[in-house]
Amino acid sequence: MKYLANFSFLGLACAGSHAASILTGTSVTTPLGSFNLSRGAACACQRLSHTSGGVIRPNSANYTAQAADAYWDVRADLSPACIFLPATANDVAHALEVFGSCDAQFAVRGGGHMNYPGSNNIVGGVLVGLSKLNNVKVNSDTVEVGPGLTWYDVYSALDSHGRVAIGGRMKTIGVPGLTLIGGFHYFNNKYGYAMDNVVSYDVALGNGTQITVDKDSHGDLFWALKGGANNFGIVTKFTLKTYDMPMVSTTIQVYNESGIPDFITAVCNAAKLDEEDPIAAGMIATVEYNATTEVVSASVLGVQEGAVSPPSQFSNFTAIPATTRINKIQSMKSWVAVLDSPKQMFRVMFSHKSMKPDPEVLYSIYNAWKDAVDEIADVEGLYPTFVTNVHAPSSARVALNNGIGNVWGLEAEPLILWQFSTGWALAQDDLRVEAWSRQLTERLHKINVEKGLASDFVYMGDAGGWQNPFAGFPAENVARMREIRSSYDPKGIFSRLNWGGFKLGI
Ligand SMILES: Cc1cc2nc3c(=O)[nH]c(=O)nc-3n(C[C@H](O)[C@H](O)[C@H](O)COP(=O)(O)OP(=O)(O)OC[C@H]3O[C@@H](n4cnc5c(N)ncnc54)[C@H](O)[C@@H]3O)c2cc1C
Asked: Where is the FAD-binding PCMH-type domain (predicted)?
């Protein structure tokens, strides 16, 4: 009720500076929290309310569905002043022009999986949800994809054509966020990362203009979008390479605690595998620890191109005694269909660092993590996992040899990305779990630095909000990205007004 009384004045906000100054600071209560209405938000919500789709306001039935239910991490639920759901690229461009002229703060959500508060949602500003930009068009060797789609949508569209794209490894991850930060897929070792497989981007710039960006047109921005995240514009369409692959060979293997040393060695060997002409194969490799029952289990979810079963590239894992082992030949769509990460799953935080593959040291990190989990065992709903991702030399060679590159600038050297993914239930534990995860990560990374095993590379998809991935990219790449940002976004719409994600900084 309080909200309705206050918000009915919104119409006045753009009418003149007097009305706007009356509204500035007015307190608004929403189902998800309160904020003081800023002049910029009042102006932008008012102007966007005149578009054909209008805006969703805090008193609308859809408000919570958009501002909370669309997110994986409960911590990401915030209270925007209004929500705009563009139906076309023109709507996106118009919104950006409005944000610039109103000086309004805004946030953008694709699949809603980036998991720290403010990375994709906002308090008291405008939330732009991209879900209606869900077109998909399959061509002979590419697919055109709207940023409102998940990777399951993409694999489903390609299924009857017998083709796959290089995207997310799980079902509900959004296309835009993953593609703009890099993109770990099962087949990086042969085809590079998701970003290396984008042949063109349609982009709405901060001033409301729209451009198509590819290797021949705006080549500087084409490079910067390959890992440079949300610093340059809103992508309204991705055109992605696809590969002929009607079937893939999959393996699910689960091990108990006695298998962990061999499991970790197999992960390190996968990173070190350096083949001229690799068979495309990769995995999700995770250890779960239940601090109450003290039961540990590790799992590998592996996928390989082709129809050889069991998949040959996982022989190091298959040699480990397993409690479960399921091998199948199936399509990418049917594999991904069961790998869901439901929205509003829990409060969750990531922390990660990278290192050279050294099984003994990686095993000591696992042990340190497990001991540290015991210290927070009383946290309600605790769900700790230790995750590893591999970067094989051949994954880097794709960008090193394609004449385009990407902003990571990684060498053809093997890396292990080790990550703590920690879920919990209650807001009262936020600061405790966040401090625990960060301190543990920094302490273990420091040991790796001293041993000469640490890498500065930080992947945005595995990082916590406290981390600065740009600090681990080559300094010349960061300087070049900043120049490109100045030329495409001279008014700083994406640095001053756009909340969240990993920002380049000054
Ligand atoms: C359960 C889980 C599994 C994961 N699996 C993988 C994996 O297999 N491989 C991998 O590489 N990563 C993975 N990740 C990390 C994932 O790639 C990132 O969280 C990514 O940001 C998700 O994309 P999204 O569209 O869902 O995110 P969102 O949270 O919607 O967006 C992420 C960021 O991109 C910005 N953004 C969104 N759309 C656009 C756009 N069109 N233009 C400009 N900016 C935009 C947002 O503002 C936000 O800052 C996983 C994460 C989770 C939680």
From this structure: 76-245
Protein residue closest via CA to atom 31 of ligand 1: 177
For residues 86 and 143, membership in a common domain is answered with no
225 and 279 in one domain? no
Domain ranges, residue 216: 136-244+474-490
Q: What is the mean pLDDT of residues 136-157?
A: 98
| Ligand 1 centroid from CA 499, angstroms | 15
Ligand 1 closest atom vs CA 107? 47
Cα of 166 to ligand 1 centre, how many Å? 14
Q: CATH code at 187?
A: 3.30.465.10
Task: Give whole-number Cα distances, 351 to 265, 384, 443, 467, in Å.
Answer: 22, 12, 12, 8
Beta bridge partners of 45: none
What is the position in ligand 1's atom list of the atom closest to the CA of 193? 11
Q: Whose CA is nearest to atom 14 of ligand 1?
A: 461
- My answer on whether 258 and 182 are in the same domain is no
Number of domains in the chain: 3
Would you place residue 165 in the very low, low, confident or very high pLDDT band (cuts 50, 70, 90)? very high
Say what the pLDDT of residue 18 is: 36
**Around Cβ 314, how many Cβ atoms within 10 Å?**
23
Tell me, what's the pLDDT at 402? Answer: 98
Question: Which tokens sit at 432?
Answer: 């405790």
Which atom of ligand 1 is closest in space to residue 182's alpha carbon?
11
Q: Are 416 and 481 part of one and the same domain?
A: no
CA of 383 to the centre of ligand 1 (A): 21
**Whole-number Cα distances in Å, 400 to 169, 304, 394, 397:** 24, 23, 10, 5
Q: Give the distance (Å) from ligand 1 centre to CA of residue 61.
A: 26
Residue ending a domain, choose from 129, 148, 170: 129
- Model pLDDT, residue 506: 84
What integer pLDDT is reported at residue 346 of this predicted model? 94
CATH number of domain containing 307: 3.40.462.20
Which of 71, 83, 178 to probe ligand 1 with, by most ligand atoms within 8 A of CB? 178
Interatomic CA distance for residues 45 and 164, integer angstroms: 40
**Please, is 481 exposed, middle or buried when counting C-beta atoms within 10 Å of its C-beta (0-12, 13-18, 19+)?**
buried
Q: Which amino acids bring their CB within 6 angstroms of ligand 1? A: 72, 107-115, 119-120, 130, 147, 168-170, 173-174, 176-178, 180-184, 230, 234-235, 341, 461, 500-501
Least confident segment among 324-333, 334-343, 455-464: 334-343
Q: Are residues 437 and 390 located together in one domain of the fold? A: yes
Burial class (CB in 10 A: 0-12, 13-18, 19+), 204: buried
The most distant pair of C-alpha atoms in the chain lies apart, rounded to whole Å, by 74
pLDDT of residue 23: 63
Question: Are 299 and 424 in a shared domain?
Answer: yes
Nearest atom in ligand 1 to 178's CA = 17
397 and 456 fall within a common domain: yes
Among 150, 230, 283, which is best to mutate for testing ligand 1, by the most ligand atoms less than 8 A from CB?
A: 230
Tell me: do 236 and 265 sit in the same domain.
Answer: no
